[in-house]
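Contributing new records

If you add data, match the layout below exactly. Sequence lines come first and carry their own label; structure lines follow with theirs. Keep one chain per record. Anything else will be rejected by the validation script.
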Amino acid sequence: MSEQHVPESQASASTGPFAIEARKLRRQFGSMVAVDELDLQVPAGCFLGFLGANGAGKSTTIKMLTGLLPPTSGASQILGHSMGPDALQAKRAIGVVPEDLAIHDRLTGQEYLTFVGRMYGLQGSVIKERSAELLAWMSLDTEPRKLIIDYSHGMQKKLALAAALIHDPQVLFLDEPFEGIDVIASGEIRALLGKLVARGVTIFLTTHVLEIVEKLCSHVAIIHKGKLVAHGPLEELKRGVETDTGSTQTLEEIFFELVEVDRSVAPALSWLS
């Protein structure tokens, strides 16, 4: 690969308002800086894949953007609402599937969705209709009296997604939503996310499965050691890192280059050498 630099921010083709904005966002835990002066703008209606190795700062960024964790410094906005003084308005517009699901597991699925719907101020009839549809769509309606604590991890993940969707959010944050999900459910969720984007919903997704990002996402941002190292439309990102032969690279190749991983030097196990 050539030494052509990939800029931290590339201009989006969208001229509309930004659904998500972060300005100099920083989070420090003691002496460790988890997220370092992150500037990020996500156009409304786009599907962003937020990539990084374990410990790069992905989940910390999502927690700050959704108001689950206060930043050490910097600010963020959702649809123009500050995740500070105006946090309640911002939170009304978002749905979140966090890394730590934190579901009330002594409830049934129906009871949990009813609780979430009431928290968002939905009418009882709306909650009843939407929760029934969501539970059926997620194949969680076959044992209505089953407590969440007895759900598998994949079932809990699907219920968390149902809870994130019940109030019809304009912005959806998904932290590793496909982890523990079977192949059939994964395909169904991908199709659902595609329909949401077609309706104008903005999706902010973290995943370690780069194939999912290439198939679903229109935009990509890559974070490395707390710093944003690339951001822009996926196709522009690929064109920005042409090889010496003029051909473009795969997202996996781009990712490894930007996070400075030399795959030619693989660690060896002494008893296998």
